[in-house]
Design brief:
- It is a single chain.
- This protein is of the alpha+beta class.
- The protein contains ten helices and 13 strands.
- Strands 5, 7, 8, 9, 10 and 11 form a six-stranded mixed β-sheet that branches. A three-stranded antiparallel β-sheet has the order 2-3-4, covered by helices on one side.
- Strand 9 (199-204) and strand 10 (210-215) form a beta hairpin.
- The two termini are 26 Å apart.
Length: 320
């Protein structure tokens, strides 16, 4: 592992600041979605106009007749709307510039597909239902620490998403709003994703990159098996041994950068939890020998990160 250069560190800090400011601006813009207009009065009573609030879906609601109070509501809304549009436009341009700088300075090394997938989950409000676990979580840790881990610790061609079964009803409602299936969400990122017929919790694209969706072992009345939608071709979520430890862990997130400069926020588990979990996996007798060695390598790397670069996080830890 080695520390990032001062130039790359400064660029990462600047880029993250813009990324987070845009996130805030998007949240603020959601409060002024839709519009307002004055509905004209009748020909015989033109003064009887009233204020109407519209939603992005086309629904309308009357806010009352034209009075000083509704005029104030209309003026305030239009000012906020205009300010929001201008701020979003400015920050999007600034983000484009920062991402070009990221690429020029080689700030990132995450697969762009991973960043695109995380951004898709965020934009559809599905990210709160998943945690990235396994090898890809190390990208979040190294980003927060300002270092780069050895390539051997990060070598992988799949990403593991831990799904929170406790929020399955809310998840189903939100998924139905944005797509007919979880596979459909992935296809918006890369249309070549297909379910593996021999392993229905895995989708794979034309380049062999896999997305695995796992869950905790059945407990507290969890249904089993669970399919993420009613579509014929979609994920059947796999139970993972002791995944409840990862689900119950304190959360951790960091902005990661792809090789093409794009950025996304990765939500994962606390580094101490993953470190302890990897050591537990390495101790399992039925674990493949090659995977056991990588488990130890990754656990050792995270331990160094915690001790030397992220000591403030050692106060919050859990044990599997």
């Amino acid at each position: 592992m080695h520390e990032l250069s001062p130039a790359i560190t400064r660029q990462y800090i600047d880029a993250v600041a813009v990324f987070e400011a845009l996130d805030d601006a998007v949240a603020e813009a959601a409060q002024v979605r839709g519009g307002m207009y004055w509905h004209a009065g009748t020909a015989s009573s033109p003064e009887s106009r009233y204020l109407v609030r519209t939603t992005p879906a086309g629904a309308e609601k009357s806010l009352g007749p034209d009075t000083p109070e509704t005029q104030a509501v209309y003026n305030k809304f239009t000012r906020r709307k205009q300010a929001s549009v201008e701020r979003l436009s400015s920050l999007k341009a600034a983000l484009d510039q920062q991402q070009r700088m990221n690429r020029a300075l080689r700030v990132g090394r995450v697969d762009p597909l991973v960043v695109a997938l995380l951004n898709r989950l965020a934009s559809t409000h599905l990210s709160e239902h998943f945690r990235v676990v396994g090898t890809h979580a190390l990208y979040a840790y190294e980003a927060a620490a300002g270092v780069r881990l050895d390539a051997d610790a990060l070598a992988t061609r799949d990403i593991d998403l831990l799904w929170d079964t406790r929020k399955r009803i809310i998840f189903s409602t939100q998924l139905a709003r944005v797509d007919s299936s979880m596979l459909g969400v992935l296809k918006k990122v890369d249309p070549t994703f297909r379910m593996r017929q021999s392993q229905k919790y895995t989708a794979v694209n034309k380049d062999g990159f896999e997305v695995d969706i796992i869950r905790r072992e059945q407990t507290d009345g969890d249904p089993h098996p669970i399919k993420l939608s009613d579509e014929d071709d979609d994920f059947w979520v796999a139970q993972a041994h002791r995944a409840n430890v990862l689900l119950d862990s304190p959360g951790f997130s960091a902005v990661i950068v792809a090789t093409n400069g794009t950025m996304a926020r990765m939500n994962t588990v606390h580094p101490a939890t993953l470190m302890a979990f990897k050591r537990w996996m390495a101790g399992q007798a039925d674990r493949d020998a090659l995977k056991r060695r990588r488990d130890v390598l990754q656990a050792d790397a995270v331990q160094v990160l915690l001790e030397q670069y992220l000591p403030q996080l050692q106060e919050v830890s859990t044990r599997p």
